[in-house]
Design a protein that fits this description.
alpha/beta, 35% helix, 3 domains, Rossmann fold, 4-stranded parallel sheet, globular, 14 strands, 14 helices
Length: 409
């Protein structure tokens, strides 16, 4: 399941079959969003539901299959449930009848692997209340909280909502400024935004819209134009821009047009710094020069879209990289957050898109297997800048901001 176009906090509801996970979602949302049945295993695949939580905003609740499902089909359902861990920001483990044993412990091990905060809901308290023994055992062993709750009576709903707010990371719903650290009040920012066949009809792509809003939120001036107008407009632009941001595909044109004393970067590199694994991108990008004949390059898109003959990830980057290295490379593209078609060790390089549709946690989790395997990772914009010989200039604003070393160049 891809988080795709739902860049909101994701709350995963996990537990054994018939523990009332779907009922819990209905209780939280006060709507019959999830199918409820006394038959164990009613929820077979993860299902997303939207709701609003005061103090957090819009969230996505994910109803999952039972972690104790059995049989060949059941094992596949459990596997799908565990795949959801890659996209959730917080987990709620639902237990009933004071039963907490191996299935819950194994789930917590997986949650810890992905560094996902969690707490436990003891459901159906109207049938059997939470025992102090189980409460203390769980809270002491895992430094978490256990909430006694009844979907029928809903008497503890406020405590449940407060616990969600307590455990969910603020970073999941409070976005930091994209470029605010680079700007001061009244600064001018120039955006170079080509309108080509990749651009959506009648509108701009999401990263461009996000940057425009961020510039305005920082009380700065934003000027937007296409690449053909850069040379003539820059001569008369006043005040001169504090920062120029371009589409990565026209880095060379922007680099030639914008004086070297003016910081220049791209929308994709801004996203790499804002929500990607920037440090590992810095370490990994120079490995593009080390690719050899027969190496496989994995290209990760954050969403699915109709690809054109000039698609950046499927056409341009493979062409540019092949020409840059002079090597016979193999490329594989995986869209959304789908499982990889091969073991990660089969790849020599991973190139992640900007990830405008994803959260930082999802991108980091997406790249984690490669990083743990010692496989270099980079980002669309950083890779393009490196291939075109302007990598140092393109990352300089953020490297200086973080007081990082340019030894990565």
């Amino acid at each position: 399941m891809s988080k795709g176009r739902d860049a909101k906090p994701h709350i995963g509801i996990f537990g054994r079959r018939n523990n009332g996970k779907s009922s819990l979602i209905n209780s939280l949302s006060e709507q019959d969003l999830a199918i409820v049945s006394e038959v164990a295993g009613t929820t077979t695949d993860p299902v997303k539901k939207s709701m609003e939580i005061h103090g957090i905003g819009p969230v996505i609740l994910i109803d999952t299959a039972g972690i104790d499902d059995v049989g060949e089909l059941g094992e596949k359902r459990v596997a799908k449930t565990l795949e959801i861990l890659k996209i959730v920001d917080i987990a709620i483990i639902v237990i009933t009848g004071n039963v907490f044993a191996e299935p819950e412990r194994k789930l917590i091990e997986e949650l810890n692997t992905f560094e996902i905060p969690f707490f436990v809901v003891h459901n159906k308290s109207d049938v059997e209340g939470l025992s102090n023994h189980i409460k203390n055992l769980i809270e002491n062993a895992y430094s978490t909280k256990v909430v006694d709750f009844s979907c029928q009576e809903k008497s503890n709903k406020n405590e449940l909502l407060l616990t969600i707010k307590k455990f969910i990371p603020e970073s999941a719903y409070q976005s930091k400024s994209l470029i605010g650290d680079l700007l001061s009040y009244g600064d001018s920012v120039l955006l170079i935004t080509p309108i080509d066949i990749e651009a959506p009809e009648g509108r701009m792509i999401l990263p461009q819209v996000q940057v425009i809003r961020d510039v305005l939120d920082n009380d700065c001036i934003v000027t937007i134009l296409k690449e053909r107008e850069v040379d003539s407009y820059y001569k008369i632009m006043s005040p001169k821009p504090k920062l120029v941001i371009t589409d990565s595909q026209i880095f060379l044109k922007a680099d030639a047009s914008i004086p070297k004393d003016v910081p220049l970067t791209s929308f994709s590199i801004i996203l790499a710094k804002h929500k990607g694994d920037f440090i590992n991108y810095l370490k990994g990008t120079p490995h593009l020069s080390k690719l050899m004949d027969g190496d496989k390059v994995l290209i990760l898109e954050s969403c699915t879209h109709h690809s054109s003959c000039d698609d950046i990830g499927r056409v341009k980057i493979p062409r540019w990289l092949s020409n840059f290295t002079g090597k016979n490379l193999e490329f594989e593209v995986v869209a959304g957050l789908n499982k990889l078609p091969q073991d990660i060790h089969q790849y020599s390089m991973v190139i992640q898109c900007g990830g405008c549709m994803l959260t930082r946690k999802q991108i980091v989790n997406r790249l984690k297997p490669a990083i743990e395997a010692g496989i270099p990772v980079t980002n669309y914009g950083m890779a393009i800048a490196y291939i075109h010989g302007i990598y140092g200039r393109a990352i300089a604003p953020f490297v200086k901001l973080e007081n990082n070393s340019l030894d990565y160049l």
